[in-house]
Amino acid sequence: MAMSEAQQRPVRDPEIGAATAPDGTRIVRLSGAWDIRALESRARTLAQALQKCARETGMRWDLSEVQRLDHIGALLIWRAWSQRRPATIMLNPEHEIFFSNIDGTGARWTGPGPIDLLASLRFLGVKSAALLFHVVEAIQLLGQMLLDTAEMLRHPSRGPWREISAGIYRIGTQALGITATVGFLIGVVLSYLSAEQLRTFGAGVLIVNILGIGIIRELGPVICAVLVAGRSGSAITAQLGVMRVTEELDALAVMGIPYTVRLVLPKVIALAIALPLLILWTSGIALFGGALSASFELGIGVHQFMIGLPAAVPTVNLWLGIGKGVVFGILIALVACHFGLRIKPNTESLGIGTTDSVVTSITVVIIADAVFAVLFNNVGIAIL
Amino acid sequence: MTPVIEVEGLWTMFGDHVVHRDLTLGVAPGEVISLVGGSGSGKTTLLRQMMGLEHPARGTVKIFGISLYGASAETLRKIRKRWGVLFQQGALYSALSVHDNIALPLRELRAFDENFIRDMVMLKLDMVDIERRHAGKMPADLSGGMVKRIALARALVLEPELLFLDEPTAGLDPDRSESFVKLIQELHGKLGFTVVMVTHDLDTLVSLSDKIAVLAEQRVIFYGPLEQVVKVDHPFARNFFLGERGLRALSAAREPLVLPVV
Fold first, then answer.
1. In a domain, A116, yes or no
2. A–B CB contacts, 8 A cutoff, strictly below
3. Quick one: A48 and A13 in the same domain?
4. Residue B261 DSSP label
């Protein structure tokens, strides 16, 4: 319909004019195209002009010269009329439809409610309750997982061995490259910075003690755990979240396959196995990097460094590192699964869940590390 | 009158597999056309090519007389504002409320104030028969039928001259699907936009389409009104329209057709 009109004569820009009616009163006359294409660039100025006309000239309007109209144009005009139809109006019959559609919308949306004075207090309460729920749910998940483990040990043939193996490959094997790179660089940097200080005191030989204890006991496990939390924790959360969105979790449930056994348990076990191994690997590479750097800076050969290591670092530190790896792995997997299972079926929730999962698992790892430091403060540190 | 859509000499290939071979199709203003064809006949691909989401190996697609391929970004932006698309799953932005979903295209224009936009959103909600109290809800809290209606409201918010519908009634129960078809019919009658749709649903097809394009053997084997499509002598068309389901839908049409003896 707009098309056929357009062909008869060229479409003009929207215009507001004035005319005098036969009885001498003034009439607002609109002409040209009043559709979105024409209004897009001039809506604000035209809306102001229309309101001015409506105030000054009153409610006598001639719309018969309007070439094109759509809901946007009609709404713009209708708003200038203070949202009701004027007493006198000349309108093309084919444009009637737009105004009759709008007339029904008389009752406006009420908008936001009154301001909540207790909003901040409520926010605090909601957040505290949420934290409590997180803790309760995480404990439930842990309990369920322990029950599942017991069940699996009773029927080992039904265990999710294939999933565990796949998990170790994805979480461990595929992370060898990145952990080696990061470990090596940390070793080099730490060694370089310590060498500068030690040389000042002529205590260069202590580099073996510093790097050995620092990396094996502390840095190796923590750096590795942070990397794995970022790399595999986020992947686990996103995977479970997408499975929730696509109803795969429900599909498992109706088949009578508990998802804690098929999805959560394999990931927890895989991480508990893969992370200690990754920590050994990262610590080894970091020590090698440190030794390399030390040989350049202090002239302590790599061979000499390695020979000095067992004397400087009691073996119990190695076990401590591995133990941390097992605990960190279980924590990362539990946090990641917990957040993954809580994701609601929409994209925003997926994004928030993944971020929360990574931030929480890194925080939990650091807290656990602090607990380790307190518990084992007099274990494995040789007093010179 | 210039056709709204002109597809000329279009070839689509996935690797060595030819989907469309020298396909040609034109849609006149105000028409409602349906693309039908067996699975793998490239209906959805053709629709996506018309929307500029996919590019054919060869050939041109012109919308409003302007070629989609090789047009400047500015021209494409202008064309995109003149069409509306209803995706199969609605494709509402899950991070935005119903109100914000419909308001988004208007806000992007940066031409209207918030009060105007709110009134416009309410108007569009009224037009698709959704109560205003749902405006603040998130898409995840809506039923499938409501998602479709709100997606339609969003597609219509910029007053499009052309509307693409991808399986408009898929996933709706017969009752909802019928009322949705009625809604599209009513809006088309009032606003006169051109509609191009892909559908498997015979009832939707029969009650909405002016013309039907049958895709088979890598081209459009038939393009014309419903009365004639039933006479097409092609295994797909015979099976689709004159199978048991087809006959049932055809006999329930507004003007029941005189069917050829099979």
1. no
2. 70
3. yes
4. P
The answer to whether ipTM exceeds 0.85 is no
Its pTM stands at: 0.69
What stretches in chain A show pLDDT beneath 70? 1-9, 21, 24, 57-59, 83, 104-114, 382-384
Kindly state whether residues A91 and A137 are assigned to the same domain: no
Do residues B50 and B28 touch, judged by C-beta distance below 8 A? no
Chain B nearest-CA residue for A245 = B140
* Inter-chain CB proximity A348 and B139 less than 8 Å: no
For residue A59, is it within any domain?
yes
- Both tokens of A250, joined, read 């429900």
Q: Count the domains in chain A.
A: 2
Encoded amino acid at A373, one letter: A
| Residue whose structure tokens are 């590390």 | A369
Q: State which residues form the domain around A77.
A: 5-104
B95, A346 contact by CB (below 8 A): yes
C-alpha span between B113 and B119 (Å, rounded): 10
B118 touches chain A (CB under 8 A): yes
Average pLDDT over residues B41-52: 87
- The verdict on A142 and A183 lying in the same domain is yes
Question: Residue A319 to residues A313, A314, B58, B217: CA-CA distances in angstroms?
Answer: 12, 10, 65, 69
Name the minimum distance, in Å, from the CA of B111 to any CA of chain A: 6
When scoring A40, A81, A344 by the number of chain B Cβ atoms within 10 A, the one with the most, hence best to mutate, is A40
Q: A175 Cβ partners below 8 Å, 6+ apart?
A: A227, A228, A231, A232, A274, A278
Residue A147 included in any domain: yes
Both A311 and A216 in a single domain?
yes
- Inter-chain contact A109–B29, Cβ cutoff 8 Å? no
Measure the CA angle with vertex B59, ends B56 and B64; round to 5°: 95
Residue pointed to by tokens 């749902």: B134
pLDDT at B262 over 80: no
Residue A219 forms part of a structural domain:
yes
Structural tokens at position A11: 């479409």
Question: Which of the listed residues A87, A104, A121 is the one where a domain comes to its end?
Answer: A104
Contact (Cβ atoms closer than 8 angstroms) between residue A286 and residue A184: yes
- Assess whether A135 and A240 both reside in one domain: yes
Helix (H, G, I), strand (E, B), or coil: what is residue B180?
A: helix
